[in-house]
Design brief:
By secondary structure, the chain is of the alpha/beta class. Helix 2 packs across helix 7 and helix 4 runs parallel beside helix 7.
Amino acid sequence: MSTDRKQSGFKQRTRVDDALAALRDAVDPHGRIEHLPLSEADGHTLATTLEAPANVPSAPEAAMDGFAVRASDTFGASDRSPEVLRVVDDEPTAGTVGPNQALRVHTGSALPDGANAVLKIEQAEPIADDVEVFDAVAEGENVAPAGEDVEAGQHLYDPGAVLRPSDLGLLKSVGFTEVPVFEAPDVTVIPTGEELVQENPGPGETIETNGLTVARFVERWGGEPTELDPVDDDEDALTAAIRSGLDGDLVVTSGGSSVGQRDLLPEVLDELGEIVVHGVALKPGHPFGFAVVEGTPVLMLPGYPVATIVNAVQFLRPAVKRAMDAPLPPHPTTEATLERKIASEPGVRTFARVKLEARENDSLPAAVPTRVSGSGVLSSVALADGWVVVDEAAEGIDAGTTVTVQNWEAGR
């Protein structure tokens, strides 16, 4: 980076959507597949189409507790004139229902040969070796046919589906024990700054938090992070740290991405590869940028903790999903009434942190701004319930407006 650029700062900033499009173009899905047991596949992205290999249930089953019968043997039964069937549970013919016979079954029991209906327990009264039937049942009544839940050959999932616990249960029910999924992308996380320490900070030192935060986000989003110790603001040290992650799918740094004298990352990346974006119209955290070094995208997150989080959610999350060819699900949201005005700069996408508070006689919660500025105040985002996104075209949002609060920390 030239001295002029360090002195002049960011004269132009890339729009968020344009930066995201450029980042998507720079990240290639890795295409690596692994087979995981169902117990380990939650949250992973399916790599192939899956079809059911078997019916569920595999054969007709009782859908109620009661007696398996031939429907025709119950025709004409009533409270005044019950039909009487012989219970065959303990006879040599148990497992087969013949004329005028009944066999006790439970919900989920296989329907015995000869039976075509199930008489509910409340429709009958056992007496000695017989059962009195007080109501007729039709053929197929209270019976789950083979394949009622899933039919053999039925299409279940397409590649790119993110597996949930309910999906894993369904897959187990049809006979799968493992599934082909895309491997978690390898992401090297590099916090930078000579003032950073892991504990017991002295004068002029700061406890490093971005590495921990970003690495856990990477895990939540489906990646496999390698978190390095803080790297000093030194060109050789930064170069070595970045090179250590180039065999992976993504490298992400925090700190040193702006245009100050100690912000050496842009210069280092300019030497190692090509900077694609540097400076984004986003608040907090406009010094975001990314480069491509030997085919590996390197994302530069700003060093202030709030700016790190905002930019990680906006840029690193879609990069991780893209690397594993997974869809990017929307964040869970809550509609709320804005309690105080949010100011914003035209042309800049602003992320205003808010807390949600219930208000008496109001069907919507109140969105109470904690901060719009102050990208170094970590508590303002950690203790918030979400953020309100102010579009570039807006000049703030007035109090009393119904807003959408993104709960960015709840989703994957």
